[in-house]
Amino acid sequence: MTPKPPGEGLTDSEIGFAATPANIEDAYRELIYEELARSGVPADTASVRVTSATHPTQGPIYMGLIRLVRWSSNSASRVLLGLPLLEGGIRKHLRGSWLLESSSFGGLWVHLSNDMLTPAVFEDSARLQNLLAGLV
């Protein structure tokens, strides 16, 4: 390989990797699952989907969609209350990643699966909310 003048980067073929939308989505998904695990959220309580949008000046923006699929007071509170910490951890890891060279991170979104919209979940959620209100 011929040395490049200062300021010229390597091409995708020279490093053996091309950033495609599919592998960018996979990398974001893996990073989000890793951050959930570091936060103590079991893999069977949340699923992750990555979606993208295109910004006219910033290019592709990828967002993580966390879906709580099984209720656990502990994991739900870690996701819902800890969302700023989860997103902060992901942004910290992104600073040392190739992903920001090819895309922008648009943040995390959280929602409950329809199966979790039950009276038992509502009662437990209200109990947690009342418990937290007493601590503030």
Quickly count the helices: 6
Report the strand count. 3
Largest sheet: 3 strands, mixed
The gross shape turns out to be: elongated
What would you say this structure looks like, in words?
It is a single chain. The protein has one domain: GMP Synthetase, Chain A, domain 3. The N and C termini lie far apart (62 Å). The longest helix has 18 residues. The N terminus is likely disordered. The chain is elongated and about 50 Å long. It is α+β, with helices and mostly antiparallel strands and 136 residues long. Strands 1-2-3 form a 3-stranded mixed beta sheet. The chain contains 6 helices and 3 strands, in the order H-H-E-E-H-H-H-E-H.
Q: Helices, strands, pairings?
A:
Layout: H1 12-15, H2 21-38, E1 46-55, E2 59-68, H3 73-80, H4 83-94, H5 99-102, E3 104-112, H6 119-135
Parallel strand pairs: 2-3
Antiparallel strand pairs: 1-2
Offer a quick outline of the entry.
The chain is an alpha+beta fold and 136 residues long. Helix content is 46%, strand content 21%.
Core attributes:
about 140 residues; alpha+beta; GMP Synthetase, Chain A, domain 3; three-stranded mixed beta sheet; elongated
